[in-house]
Fold this sequence. Notes:
Blueprint: E1 18-19, E2 23-24, E3 27-31, H1 37-40, E4 41-45, E5 59-64, E6 72-77, E7 89-95, E8 98-104, E9 120-126, E10 133-139, E11 150-152, E12 154-158, H2 168-180, H3 189-196, H4 201-228, H5 237-245, E13 256-257, E14 260-261, H6 271-274, H7 277-285, E15 297-302, E16 307-315, E17 319-323, E18 330-333, E19 337-343, H8 352-355, H9 358-369
Antiparallel strand pairs: 1-5, 2-5, 3-4, 4-11, 5-10, 6-9, 6-12, 7-8, 7-10, 13-14, 15-16, 15-19, 16-17, 17-18
Amino acid sequence: GKGFLYLRASDGAYSGLSLSPIEGAELRPYNINRFDRLMGDFVYNGLEEGGGEHQAFENHFTISGFKPGVEYDIYYYGSAYPKPNARGAEVTLTGGDGPVMQEIRGLRPENKHYKEGITHTLFEGVAPREDGTIDISWKSFRDDKEGNFGILNGLTIVAPADAEGRDPEIADRMLDGMSESPAMSSLQPERIEKLISRFPAPVVEKGKPLVEKLRVSNEDQAKHLAELMPHIGSGDPQRGKEVFFGNKAACHTCHRAHGEGGEVGPELTLIGRIRTDRDLAESIVYPSSTIANGYTTFSVITGSGRVVDGVIHRETADAIHLRMADKPEEKIAREDIEEMIALPTSIMPQGLEKTISRSELSDLIAYLRTLK
């Protein structure tokens, strides 16, 4: 609730935005890592045991540094992990056009994916005030009269691209970089196709071979997974647990299940509730295909030229804390950060299926399936 002097952009750079301290009702932190890291790590207002006058607990903060005359899309995430009595939020955003209120119901056990109105809400085309500020406030969802909790997980602020962002020369360099990237297979052809469609015809033509190459790669991955699936449906969970906590696969080095293991990768205690066998197989065989929210790997370059790679475990107004497998957490002061780059590859190395046998892979997935 203390605010941030600088909010990071998705590429790790400083965005020019700042967030004021959060004021209002007492805030209570909660971290249980259910569903995923974002939905399991939040703050809420209300009484610790629930109850109280309905929607009487409210909090608010201000984001500064927006460009007047520019419209932004702002996503507010406000849901607890899946519960029969869902916990969400009623959110009010106030910019240059006045207040706008939207509702988030919250996750229930049957919900498997992010969905607007359930996990988050989108305020589209928001214009800031003339001083470049936007206010956000929240309280409990109207139907949550028993718990009476208002949830805040986080925000995503989407700014429009600069006009020079469609410069053909920039697009050429982007396509060259993508073609040479070792993480190219983690890109989605549909997203690249949509991206280059905004540029002039020569750029679109140059990008077509890359898009086709990605499609073939994706088809190869899908074919490989289809070949694997008949061999992984009848594993032994107990042997799979031994694979998980053993040194050969070393899953426990980064992942935690039922209170045991590392905290570099996502918590897996309830992974069997929200992921199918195919999802689990894909995340093991092709870990960079889908990177869980909050587990992007960053490469941080300090003022002295030192390079540190890792997942951001926590951050404060003056420092970030990076974690990597088998290494102690490292604190880096924000004032020492020269550059911060989000990497497109997962911290989990590809090729685990070559380290363990197919029967061990089947056993491992059988164990993960029991984590509910």
